[in-house]
Design brief:
By secondary structure, the protein is mostly helical. The chain has one domain. The chain has 6 helices and no strands. Keywords: Signal.
Length: 149
């Protein structure tokens, strides 16, 4: 009995100490662990922010390259319609896809090639280069769409 008593007393004294030690390891609120978590969160946030900024910078550069290519193609199209290289470049450089997306698009449905040509010439005469570019793009899109159907 004394052996069982000593065992029970030892167990009674050891269990709370072992539990306290284990709880200290698992305690999410211990100061050292809180600081480590905060530092890790800051590093993750900084890395994510840096990655996002880099991605935005790459997207912006890609969009500028694509805009330059689009303007070159527009200038070539205008030259193909008989415009001088300088005039074609002037008109093409006025194209802004963001602004064009927000502006009113003149419907080309049911219009003949001659009517569209007159609309393009009128826009150029009035120096509405953005509208002229958008009309040309819409015309080419419609032509491609009709050609594929």
């Amino acid at each position: 009995m004394s052996r069982n008593f000593l065992f029970a007393m030892g167990l009674t004294l050891l269990v709370p100490a072992a539990f306290a030690q284990m709880a200290a390891k698992l305690d999410p609120g211990s100061e050292g662990q809180v600081i480590q978590r905060q530092e890790m969160l800051e590093r993750v946030t900084q890395n994510a922010s840096r990655d996002m900024e880099e991605g935005q910078r790459r997207s912006w550069l890609n969009s500028m390259v694509n805009l330059a290519k689009l303007r070159i193609k527009l200038a070539e199209a205008w030259q193909g319609m008989g415009m001088s290289p300088q005039g074609a470049k002037l008109v093409a450089n006025a194209y802004d896809p963001d602004l064009a997306a927000r502006m009113h698009h003149e419907s080309l449905r049911g219009k003949s090639d001659e009517e569209v040509a007159e609309m393009l010439q009128s826009a150029i005469r009035q120096k509405h280069y953005l509208s002229a570019n958008q009309l040309l793009i819409d015309y080419e899109r419609n032509r491609l769409r009709i050609g594929t159907n």
